[in-house]
Known about the structure:
The complex is a heterodimer.
Chain A: E1 3-9, H1 15-23, E2 40-46, E3 49-55, H2 67-77, E4 83-89, H3 93-106, E5 110-115, H4 117-122, E6 125-127, H5 129-136, E7 139-142, H6 151-160, H7 172-179, E8 180-182, H8 190-198, H9 204-244, H10 250-288, H11 291-297, H12 299-304, H13 311-320, H14 322-328, H15 335-344, H16 351-364, H17 371-399, E9 410-412, H18 421-456, E10 458-459, E11 462-463, H19 464-478, H20 483-491, H21 499-507, H22 519-528, H23 533-544, H24 550-560, H25 563-590
Parallel strand pairs in A: 1-3, 1-4, 4-5, 5-7
Antiparallel strand pairs in A: 2-3, 6-8, 10-11
Chain B: E1 4-6, E2 16-21, H1 27-32, E3 40-46, E4 52-57, E5 60-65, H2 66-69, E6 72-75
Antiparallel strand pairs in B: 1-6, 2-3, 2-6, 3-4, 4-5
The complex binds guanosine-5'-triphosphate (GTP) and magnesium ion (MG).
Amino acid sequence: MIKKVLLVGNPNTGKSTIFNALTGKHQHTGNWSGKTVGNASGIMKYKNREFEITDLPGIYSLDPISEDEKQAVDCLKSGIAHLIVVVLDATCLERNLILASEITKLCTNVIVCVNLLDEAEKKGISVDIDKLGKMLKTKVIPTKARSGIGIRELKEEIYSYNKKCGCCCCSADCIYRNCVYSDQDIINNKDRKIDRILTSRIFGIPIMLLLLCCILWITIWGANYPSGILSHFFGRIEEFLLIYFEDSNILIRGLLIEGVFRTLSWVVSVMLPPMAIFFPLFTILEDLGYLPRIAFNMDHIFKKANAHSKMILSMCMGLGCNAAGVISTRIIESKKERLIAIITNNFMPCNGRFSSLIMLATVFISGGMLVSVKVALAVTAAILSGVLITFIVSYILSNTVLKGEQSSFVLELPPYRAPQPMAIIRRSIRERIVYVLFRAVAVAAPAGAVIWLLQNVSYNDITLLAYIADFLDPFARLMGLDGYILTAFIIGMPANEIVIPIVLMCYTRSSGLIEFNSLSELGELLRANGWTYITAICTMIFSLNHFPCATSLLTIKKETGSMKWTVASFVIPTGVGIILCIAANCILKLL
Amino acid sequence: MNNVILLTAVPMNTAVFIFDIKKSPCSDRLNELGFTKGTRIVPLHESPGRSAAAYFVKGAVIALRNTDADTIYVSMEESCYD
Ligand SMILES: Nc1nc2c(ncn2[C@@H]2O[C@H](COP(=O)(O)OP(=O)(O)OP(=O)(O)O)[C@@H](O)[C@H]2O)c(=O)[nH]1
Ligand SMILES: [Mg+2]
C-alpha cells in the first residue's frame, strides 16, 4: 500500500515549498500566512517506493478557527496518515514549538523538519537540532527548503521511518529555552527598518499607490510591443490560411479562419501580453511579503466599513483571478465577513478584465510621450474606484443583511524575503502564458465559432447577431454602450478576457484582414463604429462592475454552498454597474 | 495588581508582559498565536491610520487592530503566574 505523509505546521513555514521539492509539483507558494487554503496531494518517488504527500493549509493549533484550518485539522485527525511531518520555522520556534509539542503528544508517527535555517542564521538564531530531537523524542531534520538543502535527508527519513519514538513530555517553552539561542535585535533589524518606511504614517499609503501605478505603467508600456508583433504574426498566418483555403468550403474559411482563428489571435495578441507582464510583477510583491502590509496600511479604512482587513488579501488575489480570490477568503474567520468578501471580490478586476481596461484606456488616451503614464493613471483610478465600491458595498452589507459582531484584524506580518526571479518567470510562463493559451483554445475558440455563426446565419435577411444586438441596443444606449458591447459581455461570460475580442469581432465582420501596429490604432476601428470617449468610459465601468465570470460563479456556489448568495454575487455587481453606467452616461453627455 | 495597563497604552518599542486577556470573539485566535499570560510582548509600530499596531510576540510580528489589542492587559514587570 502506498504510504500517506502529511505536511503540517504554522502558516508560512515553507510547507508548500517542501511539498514541491518532494513531489516535483507546482503548488503555489507565497510569503504570507494563508497562501494555501486547501489540501493538495502529490506522489514522491524515492528508491523505487512511492509515497503520497499531502500539503495542508497552515494551522496554529489543533482547534481550528477558519475554514482552511478546519480542512487541515480534519485531515490530521482523520488518522489516515502513516507519517506526519511537522514543518517549523526556525526563526519563530518559540511559537512553532507549541504546535509541534501538541502534535507529538497526540500522534506517535511524527518527524519534525526545522525549515528556514538560512534565515535563522542571518538573524543570529541558532538551533540545537540534536537536543531538539531528544526533547521532542522524534527525528528532527534541518532544512533550507528554498535552496533544496536537507530535502534528500528528509526523503531518506520518510523512506526509512518505521519506529515509534516515546512521548514528548516537556512544555514548548521548556524545549525552546533549552534548544534555541537567539541574539536577534527585534527592534532595529532590517525588517523593522523597511516596515518603518513601507507602513509609515506619512509614506505608507503614498508608496502603496505609487507601487500600484508603477506596476501598471510597466505592464502597459511593456505590453505594447509584443502586442504589435503578435498581431503582425497572426495577420501573416491568417493571410496565408486564407490563400491556402481559398477554394474550400465557406464553413472552413468562415467558421474556422474568420471565426475561430481570428478570435484566438485577438485574445493572444491583445489580452495576453498585459496578463503575462502584470502577473510576475505582482508575484514579486507577494514573495517580498508586501501583501500583509497593504492590509495593515488600509486597516483604518476597512475598519470603518466594519470589514475584516484580511479581505484585502483576497482582493489582491482577485487581481490575478476572481475565482482564486473567492477561494482565498477561507482565511477569514467570521462567516458573515467571509460572505461580504466573496460577494465583493468581483469588484477587483481580474487579469482578464484588467487587460480590457488597459486596452480601452490606451485606445482613448492620446498624448504623445506620456501616454503610457496617463493610461497607467487611468487604470489605477479604475482599480481604486473598485476598492471604493468594495468599501461602500461592504459597509452597506455589514450594516444590513450581514450585520454581525465587531470585526477583528489579527494578521501575521512575515519577514521580507528576496524574490527569486527565475522561479517567478517559470511560474508566470506556466500559469499565465500556458494557462491563457489553453483557455484561448478551450473558451475563445468556441466563442469565436458562436460569434461567426451569429454573424452569418440570418433570418429575414437580418443576422442573428443583429437581432440580439438590436434587441439589447436601446438599453445598452441608456448605459452609454451599444448593443454589440452588451452582447459581447453576455457571450463573454465564460471568460472575461474574450469580451473585448468579441466586440472587435463584431465590428470587423466583413472587413477582411485586421492588423495593427500599436494598441492606439485599434481606436480608429472603434471610433469608426461610433465609439466616443463616453462609450470607452462606460465600457470600462461596466467591465469593472458586472456579473462574475462562469468559473467564479461556480466557485462562489461551491464556497458558499448557497444559491441565494451566488445569485446575490451576480446581481449586486451587475446592478451597481448598470446604475453607474447610466449615471456616467447622463452626466458626461450633459458636460 | 499595580502597573497593569491596556496593551494599546504601552509606548512603542517597550517590552511588557501579558497579565490577562479578556474573553472576546478573537481571544481563541490570540491565544494560539502565543498571546498567553506571562508572554513578553513588544509593540513595534502603528499602522498609518493609527487603528492597528504591529507587536513582537514569540518570535513573530503580529498586526492587531486596537479594538482587539484592548482586550489584552499587560504589566511592566515579569512576575509570577500560575
Ligand atoms: N529563505 C528561505 N525562504 C523559504 C524557505 N522555505 C520557504 N521559503 C519561502 O517562504 C515563503 C513561504 O513558503 P510556503 O511554502 O508558501 O509556506 P507555507 O507553509 O506553505 O504557507 P501557507 O500555505 O500560508 O501555510 C515563500 O516565500 C518561500 O519562498 C527557506 O528554506 N529559506
Ligand atoms: Mg502552503
